[in-house]
Amino acid sequence: MAENETLECITEHERILQEIESTDTACVGPTLRSIYDDQPNAHKRFMEKLDARIRNHDREIEKMCNFHHQGFVDAITELLKVRADAEKLMGQVTDTNRRLQEAGREVMAQTEEVIRCRIQQRNMATTVEKLQLCIPVLEMYSKLKEQLESKRYYAALKTMEQLEKIYIPRVSQYRFCQIMAENLPRLREEIKEISMSDLKDFLESIRKHSDKVGETAMRQAQQHRTFNSAVAKQVSMGHYMKPVYSLNGRTHTHNGLMMDTGDEDEADEEILTAQDLVDFSPVYRCLHIYTVLGDRETFENYYRKQRKKQARLVLQPQANMHETVEGYTRYFNQIVGFFVVEDHILHATRGLVTRAFNDELWNMALSKIIAVLRTHSSYCNDPDLVLELKNLIVIFADTLQGYGFPVNRLFDLLFEVRDQYNETLLKKWALVFREIFELDNYSPIPVETEGEYKLVVSRFPFHDAEIEKQDFPKKLPMSQSVPQIYTQVKEFIYASLKFSESLHRSSTEIDDMLRKSTNLLLTRTLSSCLQNLIKKPHIGLTELVQIIINTTHLEQACRYLEEFITNITNVSPETVHTTRLYGLSTFKDARHAAEGEIYTKLNQKIDEFIQLADYEWGMAESDGRASGYLMDLINFLRSTFQVFTHLPNNNNDHASMSGKVAQTACMSACKHLSTSLMQMLLDTELKQISMGAIQQFNLDVIQCELFASSEPVPGFQGDTLQLAFIDLRQLLDLFMVWDWSTYLADYGQPTSKYLRVNPATALALLEKVYRGMKDTSKKNNIFSQFRKNDRDKQKLVETVVRQLRSLVNGMSS
């Protein structure tokens, strides 16, 4: 068993030694570790085995050295023999080399000279080649400098592009090319700054030239509109004309018809455009430059932003623009010039501005323009200036419409301006009407000759067969203001028609506008002037009567005004939507107001006479005649009512109307007189009245009744006018007859003799009479209390007073 283990260990040690001998030194570690991992003391045995193997190798080395030693000695001996020959050979080679060096020194010098020349030639060829590459670069750079000096920036940018892409890359290794390449971005920035500066100068310049551009564009639009109007007139007159063409500002037609476009001085004037008035090259140049530099979007944004700012500045009006037409003209010229320039930029450039951008600008501008015009037109009180403004707005709208901008809102604005124009016209004509009324003498127009008569008839449509038959001189019923008012109404219609021209409206619409404005003139302005005239304190009854006559004739003339409008607009009055004139109601209202004022003034005059009454309320007996103030009042009324015979009565309607006015005035005067006299009797400040005063008062009332029965105004039936004094008459009769028993017995009966006497009225007057009776009795006889008649009368009065008070209390309860 032990022997077997010994053999296995020996065999393992042999294997390990073979691995160590055949394996790299770095890999010996695992092999050696396996020795120590085996049986105890195995490494000792391995060391013994290793020592034995070393000794064995030493013996083999020694054997090999002994075998080769003699050959090594023989080789050394031979080398020693060769050394002498080698030294001899070395001497010979050195001598040969010296002789060769001496012989080739001259050849070397010539060879070096040849080499140097060849190097120079090569360098020269290289230099020429490189210079040929550099010269185009330098020439292009020189060209670039010249272009910059001559301000040909777009060409300079093209040159820079060629330098960068073609020429500099060929010689990029040279320092000067690197400097050039570094300078090109700086030059580009300089070009951008210069071109932007030119653009700013252009934008500043265009602000100054916009006025001229707009003026030219609006003048051309106006000439075009005038030309179209002339063509329309000729076509309407039956002339045929072939299409018109323009050549160098001159207008020509075929078929022998020539259209004059202006004065002889303007015949040779060429049609100017925005490009003729403004140099757009800075915009084109700057646009091209920024496009080449790849920064077009920045340029577009800057240009649009600046133009928006300029648009806001252009749209700001001057504070006093509304004072003169020049202010409006300058404002419109600037706006038109701005948008004409933008329209040119739109069509001359690709994408710098777009139609959407222009539309946005225009919508913003249009809102601002409308607001400005609304504000400033409201300050204007001159209709001529408003008319000029309207013409400017029309030309302004036509001009911009020709450039493709929508202008419907401007024409809608014109309807608002038309209302303002009508308001200014109404104010102006109000002054005209007031002046006419102030200068009128309110008397019939005297006509001395047929020429004067025809002159009046030519101004006012007056027709009266009876007056025409009369011999000269004669008088027309109306006063001088009537034909003047009629003429001024026609002038107003003409003035209103001026505004309707060029509004692109139909004849029906124009007719409707004229009728509405004329209605405003009649119903508001003329009516107000008439009402104010009627209310003026210096207008007397005669003037009021004449005013009634005047309004009657003006009312009759309204149908002629309608015919006048129809002739102007060529719109039949039978058209469904035709507006009718309201003059009839205007003059009727004025006439009614004049009639009411007649009644009022009559009553005021009666009050003035009543204030002159000076009754002696304590008189014992009457004077036997009516009071002086009352007779004067009755004479005044008689003369006044004679004036009413001048009221128009040339036909049945007017006759009935004049009679009605006179009757109403007469009845109103009598009633007011009766009421005033009654109030005089019942005045609370009047404490006592004598029977003598009652008798005097009765005489005055009798005169009033006589006046009423004398038929101061024809047309009253029976004693209708006398009934105005019936209350006074029954009251006075009651006191004059002293018929209290009948009054008290018949009170409340429809057949009562004193039906119109109110108990309260009778009581008030009776108490005043009673106080007067007592006072008179005391003054006349201190023993009056012993007189049986007076005592009985006083008792009767007291009894009547008690009964009247009971009646009054019964009525109140």
From TrEMBL:
Residues 410-768 form the Exocyst complex subunit EXOC6/Sec15 C-terminal domain. GO terms for cellular component: exocyst; plasma membrane. It comes from the Eukaryota. GO terms for biological process: Golgi to plasma membrane transport; intracellular protein transport; vesicle tethering involved in exocytosis. Keywords: Exocytosis, Transport. Residues 49-218 form the Exocyst complex component EXOC6/Sec15 N-terminal domain. InterPro entries: EXOC6/Sec15, EXOC6/Sec15_C, EXOC6/Sec15_C_dom1, EXOC6_Sec15_N, EXOC6PINT-1/Sec15/Tip20_C_dom2. Belongs to the SEC15 family. Component of the exocyst complex involved in the docking of exocytic vesicles with fusion sites on the plasma membrane. This is Exocyst complex component. It comes from Monopterus albus.
